[in-house]
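BUG: 3D viewer hangs when loading the predicted structure for this chain

Environment: internal workstation, default settings.
Expected: structure renders.
Actual: progress bar stalls at 90%.

Input used:
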Amino acid sequence: MVVATMVAIAAVVAPRASAGPRVDYKQVFTTPIPGKSTGSDTRLFYKNPNDAKAKPIPVRREEFTFPAGTAYDESVVPDCTASDAEIRLFGKAACPAASWIGGSEGDTSMTGFGPGEDALDVDAWDDHGVVVVFGRSHDFPAIGAVARGHRVGQTITFDLPRSPGGPPDGESALRRIHHIFPARSAGKRMFMRTPRKCPRTRVWTFRGKFTFADGAVEQHVYRMRCKPPARK
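Structure tokens produced before the viewer hung:
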């Protein structure tokens, strides 16, 4: 029910994605109210620039920049200090349950062995401000990889590992990404807080930058409406 509510909110405040030749990008807070505990809802659709139905060119780096004024308090969530090898071996059991901060809703990849898409399961944990992401095949969960997102200022960067696949490049490629990170708080402390005020434009600006295996870089901007609290 909570996830359904967040998706409904995102659908209201974020009706359309920023579309490009290689990726469609949409990223929003889970609340439009300033100064509130918030999560994030990120949706990506990777495409081959020459054939939208073909396997995309693998993405090597994802950079997400949140609106100015977004605040973080990593002490709200306990750390997952497991190594990449431990996470690949033990899966979700490698991290404390309370350190889980989000996961996937319908992620897929394409291997290149056929036109279809393969389901992925993705979970994320916090490690003192580093976002630890574990993605693996839904049908063959032993096949998976770990990526870590490092934040500098408002920008969090993920360097994505290569994943074996088929033609034409011998790799698999991400296709559909939908990651929901719910709001987390402890008393008055908030894991992530929306900016305290709405800008004069009444929109918050999110930015995405994507670097692909062939060296191409695509940048996007997504604007979410900010809703000032009602005056009493």
